[in-house]
Description:
Rossmann fold; seven-stranded parallel beta sheet; three-stranded mixed beta sheet; 13 helices; 20% strand; binds NADP nicotinamide-adenine-dinucleotide phosphate; NmrA-like_oxidored
Amino acid sequence: xxxxxxxVVLGATRGQGGSVVNALLKTGQYSIRGVTHDANTPEARRLxxxxxxxxxxxxxxxxxxxxxxxxxxxxxxxxxxYDGDVEREVAQGKKVADSAxxxxxxxxxxxxxxxxxxxxxxxxxxxxxxDGKAQVDExxxxxxxxxxxxxxxxWGGFYAENVTYPPYAPNCLSSAGNxxxxxxVASDTLVPMVGDHNVNTGIFIRAILEKAHLCLPRGYVLGVxxxxxxxxxxxxxxxxxSEKNGETMDVVYVHSDVETVGQIWPGTGRxxxxxxxxxxxxxxxxxxxxxxxxxxxxxxxxxxxxRDGKLGKGFEYVxxxx
Length: 322
Ligand SMILES: NC(=O)c1ccc[n+]([C@@H]2O[C@H](COP(=O)([O-])OP(=O)(O)OC[C@H]3O[C@@H](n4cnc5c(N)ncnc54)[C@H](OP(=O)(O)O)[C@@H]3O)[C@@H](O)[C@H]2O)c1
C-alpha cells in the first residue's frame, strides 16, 4: 500500500485552512495535520472525527511550529490580519517560513499571500496587510532560496462573505427606508473575487498540488473565480435578500472616499477602502507583480460551475443567504 503524503494545514479550523482540509480529504491521498491554537475546541474535535490529526501551535511561537511541521510533505500556510498589527503578521509569516525551510522531506510549501499594493502603485496606495504579506514573499525568495524552490505563492481574491462583515455590509437608513452602501470607489470598479473562500480556496490549493509542475518553483497563482463589478455586488445582495424576506429592498450605492469610510469604520474600513482604491485605479493590474505572470484558474484547469469539484461563482456565499 502506498503511504499517504502528510499535509500540514494552518488555520485548519476556519475559512481558508478549513477549505483546504476539506478539499484534500476528498482526494484520499493525504494524511492531514490541522494546526489550531487549541486542540480541544468543538471545531478541533469535529476535524478529529473526520480523521484529521489536530495539533496545537501558536504562530508566534517558533518551537510549536517546528513540532507542527515535523515530517510534512506539504504545508499550507495562512496568517491573520490581527486588527492591523502588520508587524506581528509579518513576523509570523517569517517564522512559518523559517520552520518550513527546516523540514527535510518538504516538497511543496504554499503561502497564502497578497500582492504588494505599494509596489504596484509606486507607493501611492499602500495597503498594509497586502504589503506585509508580500514582504514575507520577498523574505522567502531572498533569504530562503531552498524553500523558494518548493514554494507556490497563492493570492486569494476578495471573499464574497465580506459583504456580511460590519464595515462592508450595506446599512439600513431607517429615515429613508432603504439600504445604503457607503463605498470609497466608483460602482464600476472591478473586484477580483475568490467567491466562497470556505470552499474555493481548497479547490485552488488542490489544483496547485495536482499541477505542481506548473506552480513550482516560485510560481504565483491568482485565486480568482470571478472579476465582479462592485455595484453589481450590491444589486445581487438586494435581489437575494428581497426574495428571502418577501419584500423589495431598495439599495443606494453611495460613492464616498477613503477618508470618510475610515472615519465611519476606523481600522478595517480604511484598510478595505485602500484595497478597493487600488482596484479602482489599476483594474486587473492591481493584482499583479512586476516581471511575474500569475497562473489563473484556467491555467490550473479549473472552471466555474456547480459545487462538485468546481469553483462556485463569486456570489455563491451571498446566494447561500436565500
Ligand atoms: N477577506 C478577504 O477578502 C481576504 C481575501 C484574501 C486574503 N485574506 C486574508 O485571509 C487571512 C485570514 O484567513 P481566513 O479568513 O481563513 O482566517 P479566519 O477564518 O479568520 O481563521 C483564522 C485561522 O487562523 C488561526 N490562527 C489565528 N491566529 C493564530 C495563531 N497565533 N496561531 C495559530 N493559529 C492561529 C485560527 O485558529 P484558531 O481556531 O485556533 O483561532 C483560525 O483557524 C487574512 O490574513 C486576510 O488578510 C482575506
